[in-house]
Amino acid sequence: MTYSNFSLWTIILALGIGTYLIRFSFLGLLGNRQLPEWLLRHLRYAPMAVLPALVAPLVLWPAGNEGHPEPARLIATFATIAAGYLTRNTLAAIGAGLGSLYFFLWLFGG
Amino acid sequence: MTKSPYLQGFLVGLPFVITAAPFGLLFGVLARDAGLDLAAIMGMSFLVIAGASQFAALAQIQENAPAFFVVLTALAVNLRMAIYSASLAPHLGPAPAWKRAFAAYLLFDNTFAIAMKEFEERPDRPVDEKIIWFLGCATPVTAIWVVTTVLGALLGRAIPDSLALDFAVPVMFLAVIAPMLRTLPQLAAALTGIVASLALTSLPYGTGLLVAAVLAMMAGAETERRLAR
Question: Quick one: pLDDT at residue B186?
Fold first, then answer.
């Protein structure tokens, strides 16, 4: 890294302000006005649309394994989804995911 | 005795310290490796609080990219938060502006996911309670994020790779999403998002994710519309 202290803090501040404005956008400016029905219908699927898409590359090409698919992480992925789907409980899903991840990492000697 | 909305939110948010902590540790370790001092690492975690973009900025900083590109790349990664902002607007929109301004600061992947789940399950709550619930659910995760990034910076390479810190994030999001998966439109949205995101990973600055998210929302909404007929 070859940035001066000044340019590093400029980066951090600009990133902080920019990120805040993105977060504030609709929430801040829309206020009490209603969004149109077609847009609400799309937004209903926002969590389902964004989060699995965000996770998919991390699952298939994990940074912790130099970007190659890795069996313990794949098993942990399915364990998390299965436990979450069947129990409808987020905590149970986290437990199943991390539990199986560490068990199979240990088993496969990773 | 009924719990206050703040405490209710706090308790829902609390378990996510388990999955946020490794992510924060990892950021601290890598940021220290990249040459950031403790003040800069804390400053970033406080001012940005958006894990994925902080990692993106760090990668560019390590490459000594021009400052402008560092900011642009990281902001592109955060554009998905405009979707979060719009999604929460129907729930928190009626609140006073200063409360919304504060809630916006605490809006990131984790709080968005758990708040949407809560607000869909209990849509009729007064908006004041929703805002306070939201602050409650954000408190533990935000605190642990700042604390663990600092801890990661201090501990540095003492943390072994075998802890697989990188994988806490996928587990966290899947654990939130899987229990919400109930209907065909949701399944359509999830599958479309996954396929599109994998197909578009070569697009620069995380823009593939944005395109994938929009396509996935369209798939969900269109499936819902057709089923309703």
Answer: 94
